[in-house]
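pls read this stuff:
=====
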Amino acid sequence: AILPVERLVNINTGVEKLKLAFCKGDRRWREVVADKKLLASNNSILELSFAMGETLLVNGAEISRVQETMERVAKSFHADAFNVYVISNAIFANGVENGVKHTTQLKHFPNTAIHFGRISAVNQLSREIAAGKHSVEESFRILENIKGLPYSPLPLAVLACGVGSAAFSYLFGGSPFDALTAFLCGLVLELYLHFTSTHSLSKFLTNLSASAFVTLCSVLLVLCGLGNNIDKVIIGSIIRLVPGVALTTSIRDFFNGDYLSGTIRMIDAVLVGGCIAVGVGVVIRLMSIITGGMPL
């Protein structure tokens, strides 16, 4: 006989382990501690569905996509029953598999960077599962590979941020000289965001400090003769921080009837926008006082 008797969580690393009590032929109970991942089943339909939904949710997928994918996987593998309710940072799921009822699962998922590559890969996996191309065990292996897909390398991300900043600066009426200045600010901004991501800074503090930092860089470069219009340079420089995906996803959630998740994401986008506005406004005001007034 084997019985789980205690759940152990390392508060520093988040690693979960289980203490198991087992009895052999001599009827003496013994205990052993094992990693929870080693004990998790890799042939459970409901576990696979939950893991795929988790991967979609933490990488920025909209609620309807997460729920539809989980239901599709459970149906494709002929789960006896399956019910799921998803909000922007948690999943409630329960079902019946092989006559055994699995209790409701609730798990909190912190907000992370969006990764469209992982979302697309999970969608493709779900379509292949629906077509009967993979077993549960194969699907678990593919899903683990999907979770390991890396983000863009730092040099490419820095270059993309600089090009995007320059393009938007020019798009909003800036001169080529303003676009060049915004390009330099975009490079610095992405490096700063990479620095904050390695130091576990909160989202709001990151956006507040990043907007203030890039605004200061823009003002100083213009004062040094690089660029003609401070406002166009700042607009292009901060575009990397604008929560466009979160806002768009919240609207899609509203259209799909997921009003709670849509509201949560809308509030998040508004708060991020407010942090950006405060960061930009404070720096402009301070520099205006220091320089005796800056023409914008």
The first helix runs from residue 36 to 39. The longest strand covers residues 100-108.
